[in-house]
Request: fold
Amino acid sequence: MTLETKKSVFVELGKFLSQFSEKQSEKKSGVLYNDIFFDDFEKLIHLSQSHNGWYTPEQVYFAIKSWAEALTDENIEKWLSKYTADFAQNDRKEKTVALILAGNIPLVGFHDFLSVLITGNKAVIKTSSNDQHLLPFLAKYLIAVDESLKDKITFVDGKLENFDTVIATGSNNTARYFEYYFKDKPSIIRKNRNSTAVLNGKESHEQLEALGEDIFRYFGLGCRNVSKLFVPKGYSFDAFFQAIFKYQDVIHYEKYANNYDYNKAVFLMSNFKLTDNGFITLKEDSSYASPISSVFFEYYENLEDLKSRLKTDEEQIQCIVSNNLIENSVSFGQTQNPQLWDYADNVDTITFLLTTK
Reply:
């Protein structure tokens, strides 16, 4: 199976995914195997919340749309163009890569899955109990497009065995277990990370409204969700609260509302000072990881000192949102739209898979 063939298979998957929309899914002519997969995938989307209460149709459709936009011929070519020399090496042996996936947001492990297959390796996959259905369905679609992938994809329920390398994602606690258990294997072990935004008080209403997307998408469960704000001394949150008011309906989701009530009660019983608008709390705190329905904030006096702080803490941070205040920061509203070349934890998965012996 050539690289060009592998690219074309995922482009076909992108075309399939592009048909599904929260407003109205539309079966398009020319999309392969629609007669077999279209209706069943639409049903699975709407069943997802019964499998995982956080996987509302809105959130699943968003994840699907993001992958449909990523899996185009142009994007895949741009992504892989920097690895031409590595792909051209003839001495590379096929590896079996164990993937231990998270389940905090829909299809969160798809990039690792894609990376393993596009580099010509085999994937042995242990899905999270929170996300056991979406990826296996898409794997079946890929196998229908190219039957040779059947021998490249294996899902396992029990113990992982007979693999060469590992890519595992989990909490800081599980990461310690992974590091010990897989100490004799080449690996990428991902731990907890959070995202932050740096404001200076000059942001427009539109930018702060877009920041709400970075905070509330997937109910704040992703590592790319903004869970911490850095604001200048004396900053007023009035404009911020006005801008994020459009996201007030989040409180109508039972699981989110339960977390809001619980975490707010814990903060108040601990006599913490809170700012609250009825669907999110703001708490001054030096930590990066805030609980669901809460965002931490911290004041800064000097932007250069803050840059040094963020550099020191970079292993705790997934991405930074700002209006070009911080180098390589993400634009407001774009944290949940990473490109194929935006790697989790800034670890180049393709290089790892192509060069690890």
About this structure: Residues 136 and 155 are 8 Å apart (CA to CA). The first helix runs from residue 3 to 17. The first strand starts at residue 96 and ends at 100.
